[in-house]
């Protein structure tokens, strides 16, 4: 079957995520294997509007699969939210012969991808965000690395917290989503896990929990707090005042976005990058790639953006049971 596109453009947009390089590499090499040309668009939609576009060949993506960040750089671009910006972006694609585009980013980037598809540029989006907050997929590029980085950091905080017999509040990223917090809370054996989707703002309950932990001889109290709840420093002061237990807040921050991707992020991002090119070769457009029930799937971008996602209730219940198992 002949290819429906001849030149593929690829860009990364929004927050970077470990594994984006693996996805770029897969897009470039799969396109070349299909006899297509590839152009890298640097700095997301910003770079598109500034025509920051480079030719890419197989060697442009050598030695990157193990690297965090994105070799194409990334940006957030206000101008691209306007119809004029989108029109200009589509014209620039046409000017450079880009008739197929792979956008790697989060839900905001998908909105831009949909607009370009509507303007006649065949576009496929890949979910690249550490937050796992994209409804149509059980996996997003970067989550696995980020959650492992956060888990290792929390283990380290726990060591010092135990030595000093302190309470530690550790804030993890996730924007409004609590996936990183929930997974770390379970993986680190936290005493309390505060996630945006379920938090009832009942600090008195946390304070009671800490007092109880102390009364049964626990040497530390680890609270994993989601970024969407925030206020970790304020919470630490209030908890220390109410319990008398020395309390420290640690905001892990952008370290969670960097670092060498895990094997899962390298392999799934590679598979998704190849799949995006396969879709474009078949003449598909306006699709977003996801991972569900052990395999790749793709959806209309608009449909994907309308889907809703919630924390897995069973996993949440398990986290509650396990963190409270020492209570009477
Ligand atoms: N409604 C929209 N229409 C067109 N482009 C958009 C829209 N929303 C976001 N974008 C583009 O996508 C970029 C990245 O979105 P953002 O929400 O910051 O990150 P992410 O893609 O990681 O969720 C924005 O800076 C903007 O250029
Ligand atoms: O790097 P910035 O601009 O401070 O953004 C921080 C945000 O980006 C993230 O790290 C990733 O979010 P996106 O993938 O949606 O860009 C969030 O967890 C966090 O809230
Ligand atoms: Mg987002």
From TrEMBL:
Entry binding sites for ATP: 15, 76-77, 106-109
Binding, ADP: 25-29, 158, 189-191, 218-220
Pathway per the UniProt entry: Carbohydrate degradation; glycolysis; D-glyceraldehyde 3-phosphate and glycerone phosphate from D-glucose: step 3/4
Cofactor requirement: Mg(2+)
PROSITE patterns, sorted: PHOSPHOFRUCTOKINASE (PS00433)
EC number: 2.7.1.11
GO molecular function: 6-phosphofructokinase activity; AMP binding; ATP binding; fructose-6-phosphate binding; identical protein binding; metal ion binding; monosaccharide binding
Annotated Mg(2+) binding sites: 107
Protein location: Cytoplasm
Domain of life of the source: Bacteria
InterPro entries given in the database record: ATP_PFK, ATP_PFK_prok-type, PFKA_ATP_prok, Phosphofructokinase_CS, Phosphofructokinase_dom, PKF_sf
Active site: 131 (proton acceptor)
Main subcellular location: cytoplasm
GO BP terms, alphabetized: canonical glycolysis; fructose 1,6-bisphosphate metabolic process; fructose 6-phosphate metabolic process
Residues reported to bind substrate: 129-131, 166, 173-175, 227, 248, 254-257
Documented activity regulation: Allosterically activated by ADP and other diphosphonucleosides, and allosterically inhibited by phosphoenolpyruvate.
Catalytic activity: beta-D-fructose 6-phosphate + ATP = beta-D-fructose 1,6-bisphosphate + ADP + H(+)
Function: Catalyzes the phosphorylation of D-fructose 6-phosphate to fructose 1,6-bisphosphate by ATP, the first committing step of glycolysis.
Similarity-based family: Belongs to the phosphofructokinase type A (PFKA) family. ATP-dependent PFK group I subfamily. Prokaryotic clade 'B1' sub-subfamily.
Protein name as annotated: ATP-dependent 6-phosphofructokinase
Gene symbol of the encoding locus: pfkA
